[in-house]
Write a structure and sequence with these properties.
By secondary structure, this protein is mainly beta. The protein has helices at about 110-115, 115-120, 170-185; strands at about 15-25, 25-30, 35-45, 45-55, 60-70, 75-80, 85-90, 125-135, 140-145, 150, 155. It folds into 2 domains: about 1-55, no CATH class; about 60-145, Beta Barrel (OB fold (Dihydrolipoamide Acetyltransferase, E2P)), CATH 2.40.50. It has a 5-stranded mixed β-barrel. It has a 4-stranded antiparallel sheet with strand order 1-2-3-4, with no helix packed on it. The protein is flat. The N and C termini lie far apart (about 55 Å).
Amino acid sequence: MRKTRATRTKTESKATSKRHLKTPNVEIIVNVSNRETRIAVLEGRDLMEYRVERDERVVGSIFKGIVQNVLPGMDAAFVDIGLERNAFLYVADIIPDDSNDNSPASLKRSELRRRKIADLLRPGQQLMVQVTKGPRGTKGARVTTRISLPGRYVVVMPEAAHVGVSRKIEERAERERLRKIGEKIV
């Protein structure tokens, strides 16, 4: 086992580092890796305390949630996704279920803001959501029903009613060619 300083500079790698801090008869061992931090407190040769803290990055994660509260005054709802606090879902982040009225699945945000949250959601309703902003302090995560699955060359958006091509591809003919390929796949 490699011994290092108890403090770490900003330039040091967080990938895998181990630190020891010794006081008379007490030793604290810290092991930091990409996904977790392990801390052991030894008194002599006896293990007094052992903790594992996992990095809980939930942004981008997809959950099946249950609507807990619908707040018409805020145009929002709170959704239980299994985390410590309920997630926040704003009305503009909801893709409405339009299976009965033949309208496109994706509406402009301005059109969604005119819709009432109480018309779209009800307590106890189950829905798939994706975390867009992680929990901070006393607030829960922010979520959306606009699920996106990014890959190296493509972003799959299951509810999207169109095929989009990145604006980074500047050549018009190439963008049109890629759009046609996407439409054949969809």
